[in-house]
Amino acid sequence: MLHLVTNRKLIPDGNIFRVIEECVNAGIDSIILREKDLSYDELYNIAKEIKLIADKKSVPLIINGTLDVARDLKCHGFHTGFNCIKNKLPDFDGIIGVSIHSVEEAIQAQNLGANYIIAGHIFPTDCKKGLEPRGTDFIKKIKQNVEIPIICIGGINETNIKKVYESGSNGVAVMSSIMKSDNIYNTVHNLK
């Protein structure tokens, strides 16, 4: 499973709708809209347009961080960071994912009822410059301790994706390599 995590600031021409359309047409499995700097109204308006594009091919749209937008647009899912859940997942009529950075957080997210976790960062990435990647052993340790799907993120590309799946990941989430791509169709297909 290949999940797109958005960051419109990485898109060379700034056209997030073009990128989403190309990803949907290329067969992306879900879109996690992660535009943290936007107000409710700004995010709502962008998410509304993206949902129209995604719905054409039944691609789930998951909103990162802004529960009200996820609820108001009746999106497929809501995603949040582990530090935001405070020992209780929010009330949401859809799937809920949690970003984790340790095995303990993964276990707790599962125990609270998360539908999936995003674990990272696995390999070196510009998004986490200077921070030591956790590597594929991190995936193996999580897999031994949780039963919910593990989606891995961080520096994953076509040369190392096989190692991620061999370590027990159920899917990958990619940001930079798709957002910056000049051939999204090929990028998505090379990662699937």
Automatic annotation (TrEMBL):
Boundaries of every Thiamine phosphate synthase/TenI domain copy: 2-178
Pathway this chain belongs to: Cofactor biosynthesis; thiamine diphosphate biosynthesis
Family annotation (Pfam families): TMP-TENI
InterPro entries, A to Z: Aldolase_TIM, ThiamineP_synth_sf, ThiamineP_synth_TenI
Domain of life: Bacteria
Keyword set includes Isomerase: no
KW Magnesium (keyword) present: no
Record's keyword terms, sorted: Thiamine biosynthesis
Family annotation (Gene3D superfamilies): Aldolase class I
PANTHER family listed in its UniProt record: THIAMINE-PHOSPHATE PYROPHOSPHORYLASE (PTHR20857), THIAMINE-PHOSPHATE SYNTHASE (PTHR20857:SF15)
Protein name (Swiss-Prot/TrEMBL): Thiamine phosphate synthase
Native organism taxonomy: Bacteria, Bacillati, Bacillota, Clostridia, Peptostreptococcales
